[in-house]
Write a structure and sequence with these properties.
The N and C termini lie far apart (about 75 Å). This protein has 10 helices and 4 strands. It has 2 domains: about 60 residues, no CATH class; about 230 residues, no CATH class. It is mostly helical and about 300 residues long. Helix 2 packs parallel to helix 7, helix 4 runs antiparallel to helix 7 and helix 7 crosses helix 10. The strands form 2 sheets. A two-stranded antiparallel sheet has the order 1-2. It is about 65% helix and about 5% strand. It comes from Streptomyces doebereineriae. InterPro entries: Put_HupE_UreJ. This is HupE/UreJ family protein.
């Protein structure tokens, strides 16, 4: 029984009943996140004629362009509010400027090598989740959510351990690409919940992925100066270990939660996604401070080259 027919039956049986009709999702009008609703009319019986007038719904003008832009925004928001997606990339980038000596992070690589590592890790993660997102969404594959979410938690835990002691030195890009596959499958769940038509799905996939990449690029650009400066500081080891331990703790909490053991650590880690404005502000201030510090040291002539 359709919703409209069901409401007509209810109204005929209970003549005082009024059904308020709202729209949660209107792709062409740019309403895709499902958080807000638009009231489009009511269904009620006309007591004079004892009939239910036909409800005509006019959603107004819409276009594929508005739907595309809404999906770009949704992709960006999904990265910013998804703490797990933020942590996996940042924790893998954290030791990028460091050299490996005797299965330990010790010393620095050259600036060009550090930038190359950061670029390869970022591109590998992008390629991995883009491919998985496209295959899963366009193929409309019905994949259970909990194994994917558990894989993501495990990937973050492995990344945190790698930041403490190198597990796969020189293979960071390859491993990151594999991790990206799991994150791409998780991204596809957002599109699956929207039940889009084939044409809308293709456009949405492009826009959603573009939004993810733009925000991801912004985060890497903001983190880059800090990563390069941090590697030169004496407190680098303490800060790296602290970040890795906190990230690993969150990952363990997520893994337990995805395996059916809810816990306060997972709830706290998920709640961190609601403070993305603060995170972006902190990254921006840190990046500006790092850039200013580097410029000041260079002018004074006592800047130690990365990798020296």
């Amino acid at each position: 029984m359709s919703t409209a027919l069901f409401l007509h039956v209810i109204v005929h049986q209970v003549v005082t009943h009024t059904a308020i009709v709202t729209v949660r999702q209107d792709w062409a009008a740019g309403q895709v996140d499902g958080e807000g609703t638009t009231q489009v009319g009511t269904i009620r019986i006309d007591t004079r004629t004892m009939t239910v007038p036909t409800l005509e719904v006019d959603l107004g003008d819409g276009s594929a362009w508005r739907g595309f832009l809404a999906m770009v925004k949704l992709g960006g928001d999904h990265i910013l509010t998804g703490t797990d997606h933020l942590l996996i990339l940042l924790i893998l980038l954290l030791p990028a400027p460091l050299a490996v000596t005797g299965r330990r992070w010790h010393g620095l690589v050259g600036a060009r090598s550090a930038l190359g590592r950061i670029g390869r890790i970022t591109l590998a993660f992008t390629a991995g989740h883009s491919v998985a997102l496209a295959v899963t969404a366009l193929g409309r594959l019905d994949i259970p959510g909990w194994p994917v979410e558990a894989f993501i938690a495990m990937s973050i835990l492995i990344g945190a351990i790698h930041a403490i002691r190198p597990l796969f030195p020189g293979k960071e890009a390859l491993v990151t690409g594999v991790f990206g596959l799991g994150h791409g499958m998780a991204f596809s769940f957002v599109l699956a919940e929207m039940h889009l038509s084939t044409g809308q799905l293709a456009t949405s996939l492009l826009g959603f992925n573009l939004g993810i990449e733009l925000v991801q690029l912004l985060l890497v650009c903001l983190a880059l100066p800090s990563l390069l400066v941090l590697a030169r500081l004496r407190v680098q080891t303490a800060l790296r270990l602290t970040g890795a331990v906190l990230t690993g703790t969150a990952a363990v909490g997520w893994l337990a939660d995805r395996l059916g053991l809810p816990n306060p650590v997972a709830r706290a880690a998920d709640g961190a996604g609601s403070h993305t404005t603060l995170l972006l502000a902190a990254l921006t201030v840190t990046a500006l401070a790092a850039t200013a510090w580097t410029g000041g040291r260079r002018l004074s002539g006592d800047l130690k080259p990365l990798g020296a």
